Amino acid sequence: MESGTANRGNGVPENLKQQLAIAVRSIQWSYGIFWSISPSQPGMLEWGDGYYNGDIKTRKTVQAVEFNADELGLQRSEQLRELYESLSAGESSGQIRRPSAALSPEDLTDTEWYYLVCMSFHFDIGQG
Q1: In Å, how far are 31, 46, 65, 83, 120 from 58, measured between CA atoms?
Q2: What is the pLDDT of residues 73-97, one digit of tens each?
Q3: Which residues contact 23 (CB under 8 A, 6 or more apart)?
Q4: What is the rounded average pLDDT of the residues 105-117?
Q5: What angle do CA 18, 23, 25 make, to 5 degrees?
Q6: 80 contacts 20 by C-beta, under 8 angstroms
Q7: Quick one: 66 exposed, middle or buried, by C-beta within 10 A (0-12, 13-18, 19+)?
Q8: CA gap 39, 47 in Å, rounded
Q9: Which strand (E) or helix (H) includes residue 29?
Q10: CA atoms within 13 A on the CB side of 30
Q11: Where do the domains of the chain lie?
């Protein structure tokens, strides 16, 4: 790792989402995903982080604030992560709890759904 580059303790750089955002926007992709080695299952790849830059069906915000494209993408990526965590927690506890301005599954485009579902993927050595 480069000196001066902080990480989250799992080998993922702190500024990874910003780096993904720059890369994804520069080549006009809908999203970018960083897969990392699982700390709990060595040899397994799992979701490290991601940045969503695709179409948005429904915008939900807490405040009525105008966002530039960078902020909008970062906000949407975070909202999708929160929805995934909410749905995952609800699956194990039977209760689905969402923040006040959270997305609902019906708010998502097909691309947003795929991005969200990717958060649950794990890849073993030699798979895919």
Answers
A1: 17, 28, 15, 14, 23
A2: 888 899 999 999 888 886 665 565 5
A3: 32
A4: 92
A5: 95
A6: no
A7: exposed
A8: 11
A9: none
A10: 11
A11: 15-56+67-86+102-124
CB atoms within 10 A of CB 84: 18
d(CA 82, CA 103): 8
Query: Token match 């691309």: residue?
Result: 111
Q: Of the candidates 26, 60, 44, which has an alpha carbon nearest to the alpha carbon of residue 125?
A: 44
The predicted model gives 46-56 an average pLDDT of: 92
Note the pLDDT of residue 113: 93
Mean of pLDDT values over 45-64: 80
Banded pLDDT at 68 (limits 50, 70, 90): confident
Alpha-carbon distance 80 to 83, whole Å? 5
User: HSE-up of 77 (CA within 13 Å, CB side)?
Assistant: 23
- The structure's pTM equals 0.76
Question: CA 23, CA 108: separation in Å to the nearest integer?
Answer: 23
